[in-house]
Design goal:
Organism: Allacma fusca
Largest sheet: 3 strands, antiparallel
Helix content: 10-25%
Strand order of the largest sheet: 1-2-3
Pfam families: GMC_oxred_N
Keywords: FAD, Flavoprotein
Protein name: Glucose-methanol-choline oxidoreductase N-terminal domain-containing protein
Oligomer: single chain
Shape: elongated
Strand content: 25-35%
Number of helices: 2
InterPro entries: GMC_OxRdtase (IPR012132), GMC_OxRdtase_N (IPR000172)
Distance between the termini: 26 Å
Structural class: alpha+beta
Length: 102
């Protein structure tokens, strides 16, 4: 997903300047230290706000090796070899399930 400032900023620059005059640092709010003031960035594609569904799920939802469950809440991502995800533990309709990637 591409994250950027929208084309129209309105009074954003004036609000940032006012915040700096009050002692707030102008900082990257997506960074590690987030106390401060900055522009608001949005996921934008082709001039309009993008969403996770359109960016990731919609292009892949017809793949034969992908199963999508509605009304599921992931509780835990299962890792092996450090940081390689190989499964998830989730709840769906009150039942806890564990699934693994193949």
């Amino acid at each position: 997903m591409r994250i950027e400032r929208p084309g129209y900023q309105g009074l954003s620059s004036e609000f940032i300047q006012a915040g700096q005059e009050l002692g707030l640092p102008h900082t990257d709010l997506n960074g590690y230290y987030t106390k401060g003031i900055d522009y608001i960035y949005y996921p934008i594609r082709r001039g309009s706000r993008d969403a996770v569904f359109n960016a990731f799920i919609k292009p892949a939802r017809r793949r034969p090796n992908l199963t999508i469950f509605k009304f599921a809440h992931v509780n835990k991502i299962l890792f092996k070899d450090g940081n390689v995800a190989h499964g998830v533990v989730f709840d769906r309709h009150g039942e806890q399930r564990t699934v693994y990637a193949t």
